[in-house]
Amino acid sequence: MVQTFGSESGGGFGGNLAVLLHDLGRYDEADDWSAACTASKSLIRDSSNSEAVLRHANRLYQKAENEQGKDGGDLAQAKKDREEAVRLVWELLRNRLDKLTNATTQDEQSFKRAAELLAVWEEGLKVRVKEEYGLPGCIHSSTTAKMSVCARCKQVAYCGHQYQKQHWKEHKKTCSPSEIVQAAAEAKKGMLEESE
């Protein structure tokens, strides 16, 4: 069953975002988010552009599912599509939380918890981006900047070409094509040899 953002049959917004976070290996965040969003689903639907954003996020998620299910599918692109779907929905929720003014006491507590989780999640993402990717000390995160991966190893991400260039001297000491990249290159080479 393909799950969709905002569809009640697929678990609704909170359930689907929890599924995406789980797929990305963010298990604690998935559990926390699922609990905090139980009473927050109406936030997403209240935005004027929410339907379009949710449809786009859903298309990205379905594309990722299809790509992952194919033999020889592009798993790196599938992961990027999932992450972009999560980012879009988080942005939509963040915008709605910022505009929230009239809520019941119970809703306010749920929304407050969701906003706290969003802040913790975003801060954690910034920390992970700094620790695991690219130029040390970069203040950008993949929620605010389009990340690009190293073309050679596909393991290190940067928020801009200038940062990749600055970090190259240090990174090239450890940069080597990943097993996936090497396997793809060997498969392509084999296909070219067969066609000759």
Automatic annotation (TrEMBL):
It holds the Pfam family zf-MYND. GO terms for molecular function: zinc ion binding. Residues 138-175 form the MYND-type domain. InterPro entries: Znf_MYND. It comes from the Eukaryota. Keywords: Metal-binding, Zinc, Zinc-finger. This is MYND-type domain-containing protein.
